[in-house]
Design goal:
The relative contact order is 0.20. By secondary structure, the protein is of the alpha+beta class. It contains 1 helix and 9 strands; from the N terminus they run αβββββββββ. Helix content is about 20%, strand content about 30%.
Amino acid sequence: MRIGRQQERRERQEQHGQQVRLGKALVVGGCVAALGFAPSAAVATPGSGVSGTVVAKGTSTGKLKVKTPRGRTDVTFRTITVEPGGSTGWHTHRGQLIAVVKSGTLTRTLDDCSVEVTPAGTSFIEPAGARHRHIGRNLGTEPVVLWVTYLLPEGSALSEDADAVDCGANK
């Protein structure tokens, strides 16, 4: 008789376990189904009264490493045009600049006398500090148009004049 009761108990426990598993499956399934009908904050909503225009786009030749100044940062967006034969003069910046060449080709001579030629549709970063003086020139026949974002310490000038670097024939 004892074996019969143990067998019965096991069968009841097994049946109860199956019912519990079935119940859990039904609850989970019901919740998943209900989520399909419930409104969600994650669902995108159409905007209204907003417009945007891409003014310039440029692709970098490599990874861009953007660094903001310590403390508060002035963010300034500026259009710069360098006429054919024109130059920016030697200068530095107290913070980084992110530039896109919208049209023309900008030729920059850097502090180490290396030359970087940046055509329309490309972008670059100018690093901060006195060790990074440079000059931008338009050696082409059409104006160079730059779209520049300045990330400068609060209250800084957009650029600071610097002494020319003696690059021999590359001056």
